[in-house]
Amino acid sequence: MPASKIPLLTLSILATATIAEEQAVGHDGAVASAAGKMLGLAISEAPSGTQVGVDTLGTGVAIAGAAIANGADLQVGSSGKLVTQTAGIIVARALQAAAADGDKLEVLLTP
Question: Which DSSP symbol is given to 87?
Answer without folding.
Answer: S
